[in-house]
Write a structure and sequence with these properties.
It contains 7 helices and 5 strands; from the N terminus they run E-H-E-H-E-H-H-E-H-E-H-H. By secondary structure, it is an alpha/beta fold. The chain has a single domain, classed as HUPs (Rossmann fold). It has a 5-stranded parallel β-sheet, with helices on both faces. It is globular, with a radius of gyration of 17 Å. The two termini are about 30 Å apart.
Length: about 230
C-alpha cells in the first residue's frame, strides 16, 4: 500500500540544508512550482528569500500574471520577494541559434544557466551562501539538467553552493497540485518561452485542439486535478 503523502496526512520532516545553512535564496519560476517548496521551507524554519528572474516568459502579460501570483503567495507566507524584472533582450541573445532546439535540450540549459547565474550574483552580493530553484519539482523538467546548471552558477562564487534537493520525492509533486488548487493559482499551459508556446500550440493543432488561451485557467476552478506544464 502506497503511503499517503497528501497535505492532510503528510508529517513534514525538518529539512536539513547543506552544511547546516539556514538562509536560502530560492529562484522561483512560478507560484504553482514554488508553493509546496515554500511551505516545506517555512515549516523547517529556513529563512527564505524568493528571487524571481525569468526573462524567458512570453509575452509580458503572461510574465506579469505569473509573477503576481508568486508575489501574492510570498506575502501570505511572509517571505521576502526580490523582483529581478524582465530582461528579455539578454535572454534572446543568450539563446540565439537555439530557436528550434527541443524541450530539455541546449536551449533549456542556456536558459537555466542565465537565470541561475543572476540568482548566484544576487546571492553573492547579499550574503547568501546557498541557492536553489523551484524548477526541479516539475515532472516536465530534467532534474539533472537543472542541477548541473545550478551547480555551475554557484561554482562561480567562493563559498556558495546549489542545493540539489529532489523536491518531487515523498509526494512533493502531488502536494504542489493540491496547494495550487487550494490557492487557486493561475494554471499555465506551456513552459514559458516563445518557442515553447510555438511548439505547444503546434502539438495542440495536430491533435485537433485549439491554441492556448492565456490567462484563463486557474487551479481550483475545474483544473486542479491535472498536472501542469510548469515553467
Amino acid at each position: 500500500m502506497q503511503p499517503d503523502y497528501s497535505l492532510s496526512h503528510y508529517a513534514r520532516p525538518v529539512l536539513e540544508p547543506p552544511q547546516g545553512v539556514r538562509r536560502l535564496l530560492l529562484h522561483s519560476c512560478c507560484a504553482p512550482c514554488a508553493g509546496e517548496i515554500m511551505e516545506a521551507l517555512q515549516a523547517s524554519g529556513i529563512e527564505t528569500t524568493i528571487f524571481f528572474y525569468n526573462p524567458n516568459i512570453h509575452p509580458r502579460a503572461e510574465y506579469d500574471l505569473r509573477k503576481q501570483e508568486n508575489i501574492r503567495f510570498a506575502a501570505k507566507l511572509g517571505m521576502k520577494f526580490v523582483d529581478a524584472d524582465y530582461d528579455t533582450e539578454n535572454w534572446f541573445a543568450r539563446v540565439k541559434g537555439m530557436e528550434h532546439e527541443p524541450e530539455r535540450g541546449a536551449r533549456c540549459s542556456a536558459c537555466f544557466d542565465m537565470r541561475f547565474e543572476r540568482t548566484a550574483l544576487y546571492g553573492a552580493e547579499h550574503g547568501f551562501s546557498l541557492i536553489s530553484s523551484t524548477l526541479g519539482i516539475s515532472r516536465w523538467k530534467d532534474l539533472e539538467q537543472i542541477n548541473r546548471s545550478g551547480e555551475r552558477a554557484a561554482a562561480r562564487w567562493p563559498h556558495m553552493a546549489y542545493w540539489t534537493f529532489n523536491w518531487r520525492k515523498q509526494g512533493g509533486a502531488q502536494r504542489m497540485i493540491e496547494i495550487s488548487g487550494r490557492e487557486a493559482f493561475y494554471q499555465q499551459e506551456y513552459c514559458g518561452c516563445i518557442y515553447s508556446l510555438r511548439d505547444t500550440n503546434a502539438r495542440r493543432e495536430e491533435s485537433g485542439r485549439g491554441k492556448i488561451e492565456r490567462g484563463v485557467k486557474f487551479y481550483g476552478r475545474g483544473g486542479e486535478g491535472s498536472a501542469p506544464s510548469l515553467e
